[in-house]
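Thread: Newbie trying to understand structure tokens

Hi all, I'm a second-year student working on a class project, and my supervisor (Dr. K.) asked me to get a predicted structure for one chain before our next meeting. I've only ever worked with sequences, so writing a 3D structure as a token string is new to me. If someone could post the tokens and maybe explain what I'm looking at, I'd be very grateful. Here's the chain:
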Amino acid sequence: MQITAAETVGSEGRGAYYEGAGSLRDMVQNHILQLICMIAMEAPVSFDADEIRNKKVDVLNAIRRIGKDEVSKYAVRGQYDAGWMEGEKVPAYRQEKNVDPKSSIDTFAAVKFYIDNWRWQDVPFYIRTGKRLHEKTTVINIQFRPAPNYAFPPEAAETWRPNRLTISIQPEMDIRLRFQSKRPGQSMTLNPVDMIFRYKDAYDGNEPEAYETLLLDIMEGNATLFMRKDQVEAAWKIIMPILDAWQNRTPVSFPNYAPGSWGPEDAEALIAKDGHQWIVM
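---
Reply by user tm_fold:
Sure, no problem. This is what the structure looks like when written as tokens:
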């Protein structure tokens, strides 16, 4: 399971706020953990707000806690340097307005989570988020486990790829199912192909912005998408060991990634050591 929530912008004049937040607090503690809950929760018995939030908090309570001495094995942080994006020179984070020139705040975070329950035991959840990344996107990739044995001849296995479900939230909403298809011809050659559903192709009219939906829910008293007190507390229990470890260890490599990249090299190593790689559409 992979979740990427990437932004191309920098601090956008919010340096004073971001100095007290960072990407882990700003994005992972609430937004990304909520996405994990939506994907990993058990099926609710109704669409009642408390029923759905009960299922979400079950996921948060099942997420394996990371010990402070294990943080380096499960979490990576980064901070963007000066460079170029789309033909425009952009400053390093430490050069942004209202930012400490020696700041150790993270503008990028990648974490590997495990959910210790019956359904998701030993399935890694890789998440990453950051500013000044390659493109603006929020996407969820669910990669399926391979079948134990293939019935296809050896030559077919050379092009075999894992099947996966991709849910894109922004900039465009779509759902893709990737599976193997036999190429036309006498040889048994398989290639991955995508079956795609796009909201804009199926429905007319403009989709409401995320905050428009939330504001309407507030006016109608619909609490389904809002975090309950026990959810907030459970989320902070997951994140605090990482925050504490980072605050007690000054990073020596900051800044450690270029604008327009997908983050620091350590983020690639985090997932590569498990034999995987970040999925880029």
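A couple of things are worth pointing out once you decode it. The chain has nine helices and ten strands. The mean pLDDT is 91. Feel free to ask follow-ups in this thread.
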